[in-house]
Design goal:
Length: 432
């Protein structure tokens, strides 16, 4: 390892330990690398500006964030909750089952796990805490686990970022997440059913048939958002980036014009919140460009690929190594950092082993979603703790079965790429 690369890593680690903003730490580490290397420090600006201005797909990120925040500020989550109660409320642990189904629908609009937890997830927790059969730890754990559906079921902000760094088709990545996303929901519902039977959790009241049309009517417009997005993308009416703009406009129209749930003051707050969230992600992406330049200049991806090939790793052995690595890093590091710094290093190895990049991307993003609920530092656990005050320790104790179910799916996807690739291939995408 060269002294310049050691300086980069030292500054980056120091920034993390000092809890400096991640994006600033990444840019500072790039500056340190160039300084020790004796190169022009203006290279930082060049790499960042070239990377940002040549990344059209990057426009989707702030627009999906805006769409999710608009829907959370309106009454969309409440209407979805009522609609999903018709379908699964009569199962054991009905409120938890409803939360999972709401997360499935909301995932088709937002693409963000945190938006899911802070929107419909918060409503579900409030409902469950009114019932003595649901402990606070269980309520927080199931909401955190269900929120991981957000970035797997399309559209997905992490898959957009992965498409940016890998060059894989964002449309194919979105389709690749469809079957794993529904399998996640199914496995979480099974876990809830097992726990609910063991604890004799209640079923929700049967909604009279006469109330169904009104509930379905109120939920029709929110349910139309993922339908419009996916239909538009896969018929070629608009690109995934343009779909983000459609999502933001449709959410604004539904929440602001149809439901009249957005005042000008609330809309301004949504815009400010979305701007802050977008700025954080954009700054991290900007920092990643200079770090990736440093790693490439030092030949790190090539050295890693050579080492893996010399070790004669099979596809499964390499993917197992990647999963163990990201499960360890995912509970202590930001998803954007993992996607933008570590994934580009591994991509040449994946290509050399003829691993499909769509399969690899969906597997990696699912791994990172598990990291959001994995002890001890899962981000979603901290988000829910901040929103509700539920102790993180209680959520960890109640969430072990949900974690096991998601890990089983992760290793199933690792062993059987068809789980990811069958839908893109059936839609005519060539993913290799």
């Amino acid at each position: 390892m060269t002294s310049a690369l050691m300086a980069l890593i030292a500054v980056l680690v120091a920034g993390f330990l000092l809890r400096a903003p991640i994006g600033f730490s990444m840019i500072a580490s790039g500056v340190a690398y160039l300084a020790v290397k004796g190169q022009d420090l203006g290279m930082v600006s060049e790499q960042i500006l070239n990377g940002l201005y040549n990344s059209y797909v990057l426009l989707a990120v702030p627009l999906f964030i805006l769409a999710a925040n608009i829907m959370n500020a309106g009454t969309v989550s409440d209407r979805l909750f009522d609609f999903c109660a018709i379908l699964v409320g009569r199962f054991r642990g009905g409120l938890a089952q409803v939360n999972i189904l709401v997360s499935v629908v909301f995932a088709g609009m937002s693409g963000s796990a945190i938006a899911d937890a802070a929107g419909p997830g918060l409503i579900s927790i409030k409902q469950m805490l009114k019932r003595p059969e649901y402990t606070p730890g269980f309520a927080g754990a199931i909401v955190a686990a269900a929120a991981t559906l957000g970035p797997i079921i399309p559209p997905s902000i992490p898959l957009v970022i992965y498409g940016l760094v890998s060059g894989a088709s964002v449309g194919a990545l979105f389709l690749g997440g469809v079957l794993p996303g529904f399998m996640m929901a199914f496995l979480l519902m099974i876990a809830v059913y097992i726990i609910a039977r063991h604890r004799n959790m209640p079923r929700e009241r049967r909604i009279p048939l006469a109330e169904w049309p009104g509930i379905c009517y109120r939920g029709a417009l929110p349910l139309s958002i993922p339908v419009v997005l996916l239909t538009g993308i896969y018929t070629g009416a608009f690109t995934p980036t343009e779909a983000a703009a459609v999502a933001a406009f449709q959410a604004l129209f539904v929440a602001g014009v149809v439901y009249r749930a957005l005042t000008w003051r609330k809309l301004w707050e949504v815009i400010l919140e979305s701007t802050r969230g977008s700025a954080v992600i954009t700054l991290i992406i900007a920092g990643s460009f200079i770090i990736n330049y440093a790693f490439t200049a030092e030949g790190v991806p090539h050295l890693l690929a050579t080492w893996v090939m010399d070790m004669h790793f099979s596809k499964v052995q390499f993917l197992l190594m990647v999963n163990v690595l990201f499960l360890a890093l995912g509970c202590v590091m930001d998803i954007s950092v993992l996607l933008l710094v570590f994934v580009p290093i591994l991509l040449p190895v994946a290509s050399a082993l003829h691993i499909d990049l769509v399969h690899f991307g969906v597997m990696v993003v699912l791994n990172m979603m598990i990291g959001l609920i994995h002890p001890p530092f899962g981000m979603l656990l901290f988000v829910i703790n901040a929103l509700t005050g539920i102790p993180i320790k209680d959520m960890m104790m109640e969430g072990w079965l949900f974690l096991i179910m998601l890990l089983l799916l992760l290793f199933g996807i690792m062993l059987y790429p068809e789980i990811v690739l069958i839908v893109p291939h059936s839609m005519g995408y060539v993913t290799q």
